[in-house]
Design goal:
Largest sheet: 9 strands, mixed
CATH superfamily of the largest domain: Thiolase/Chalcone synthase
Shape: globular
Strand content: 25-35%
Number of domains: 2
Helix content: 10-25%
Distance between the termini: 27 Å
CATH class of the largest domain: Alpha Beta
Number of helices: 11
């Protein structure tokens, strides 16, 4: 037996909209900030999924993406550190194909069914790029989803799978390509997408002895609104059975897309509803879930609904191009940063990736970064680790740097006080300059500080103004 014990999602705050200068398109799509990538978005979705849960129960983590920041370096290991999971878990990446998210669900379900694990976290995220202002650029968005696959029924039990594998050059990207490529539209639609996805869904329903009318919701991959609507007709689905694909609000989010639609379906489902999710790419994966009575009391998650309306418009399309390093920007008027020490990064991974400070056992004060001697009572070696990543805070003081070379001028540096104690000097991201003030409520977010010349991605925690939506704390 296997099922979904919890779910979560992440949609970046920034959107290209009809108000964006130079965009020239009536719809909108979600765009990751300059300091976000598939790993940071996966961490955000995973934190949403695990909010309020005992993270020591997670036995494995599978990361699905086609846009891992590294060609050789496991993203799942970084995500597990940032989510503060145990060290004795299995982690793996599933990549290079758009149905990696649904394949990851199947791998996680096989793990819990075989009893090699009880709880496996599946996180899927993508930040794909298409040529600027192309048709694909208008329909692709950034986002992430997370599912905790458990050995119990949970919120929705997994009733069955059906997969197909077929070599199909419809959408591809070579190792040296920045943008995706695609073949002739009619060929890849008729000979590929429509036929392959329909075969997978029909094969699944036949195995289960079901008809399309027996399914409450179908969440399936697609590349644009027209193909998504055509697929509904091919499957014989009524409009109310088709899960909202979020075109015009988020866009197609690659490997995360069917999983994000599944999260949206779970937010709306009632106990007993059957939900089919389908991933597509070099074949297809079709999975059927049935909502349990536990779904009647849905967990407090931001999920899809909590992120959709928490948004800001990117003022100028050129700003997004600078975020993606597709448009030259004036360099910083200061010396370049020193090379990163991989030894120091390893030594300090608990304070930098897991964001652990210390709580003095003698006086009870919280401090960051951790140190042997308490700065308040001077007791030595009498402290316990204290995680700050899941705690909210407020700005104590701040400054703005207009010559720091950040893609988002000015660079806002803030001192924040955490709820429950502790103080930290951090960068502020996802902010509007006119809203920054002393006392502004903030939450922590895992972000990239940049990439060094050796190709090392430097991850750390920043603060951001508290986003609207359901709470997402652990």
């Amino acid at each position: 037996m296997a099922g979904i014990a919890s779910y979560g999602a992440y949609i970046p705050k920034y959107r290209l909209t009809k108000e964006t200068v130079g965009w020239g398109f009536p719809g909108e799509k979600a765009v990751a900030n300059f300091d976000e990538d598939s790993i940071t978005m996966a961490v955000a979705a995973g934190a949403d999924c695990l909010g309020g849960m005992d993270r020591s129960r997670v036995d494995g983590l599978i990361f699905a993406t086609t846009t891992s920041p590294y060609a050789e370096q496991q993203g799942a290991a970084t995500i597990a550190e940032a989510l503060d999971l145990r060290h004795d878990i299995f982690t793996t990446d599933i990549t290079n194909v758009l149905r990696a998210g649904t394949s990851a669900i199947r791998a996680a379900a096989d793990a819990v069914k075989s009893r090699s694990a009880k709880n496996v976290l599946v996180v899927a995220a993508d930040q794909r790029m298409a040529p600027p202002k192309s048709g694909a650029d208008r329909t692709m968005g950034d986002g992430a989803a997370a599912l905790l696959i458990s050995s119990s029924k949970g919120l929705a039990q997994i009733d069955g799978f059906h997969s197909t594998s077929e070599h199909m050059l419809d959408v591809w990207r070579s190792a040296d390509d920045a943008f995706i490529h695609s073949g002739e539209d009619r060929f890849i639609a008729d000979e590929g997408y429509h036929r392959i996805l329909k075969e997978a869904v029909n094969g699944l329903l036949e195995k289960q002895g079901l008809k399309p009318a027996d399914v409450a919701r179908v969440a399936y991959a697609s590349t644009d609104p027209r193909r998504h609507a055509d697929m509904a007709r091919h499957l014989g689905l009524a409009p109310e059975q088709v899960q909202d694909p979020l075109y015009g609000r988020v866009g197609s989010t690659g490997t995360a897309f069917p999983l994000m639609l599944l999260v949206g379906a779970l937010e709306q489902a009632a106990p007993g509803d059957r939900i089919v999710v389908v991933g597509y790419g070099d074949g297809a994966d079709a999975i059927i879930f049935q909502a349990t009575d536990a779904l009647a009391k849905k967990p407090a998650r931001r999920g899809i609904s909590g992120h959709l309306d928490s948004r800001d418009t990117i003022a100028d399309y050129d700003q997004m191009l600078q975020w993606r390093q597709l448009l030259a920007k004036e360099p910083a008027r200061r010396p370049p940063p020193q090379p990163m020490s991989v030894q120091a990064a390893y030594r300090d991974r608990d304070q930098n990736l897991r964001l652990y400070g210390m709580k003095c056992s003698a006086c009870g004060r919280v401090q960051y970064p951790p140190q042997r001697v308490c700065t308040f009572c001077r007791s030595k070696d009498e402290a316990v680790p204290w995680r700050l990543a899941d705690r909210r805070g407020e700005i104590f003081t701040y400054s703005m740097d207009y010559v720091g070379g950040t893609p988002d001028v000015p660079l806002v540096i803030a001192v924040i006080n955490f709820e429950g104690g502790g103080r930290m000097l951090v960068m502020l991201t996802d902010r509007k300059v006119d809203e920054v003030r002393i006392g502004l409520p903030v939450e922590m977010t895992f972000r990239s500080l940049g990439t060094f010349s050796e190709g090392i991605h430097n991850y750390y925690w920043k603060a951001m103004p508290l986003r609207e939506g359901a709470p997402s704390t652990a």
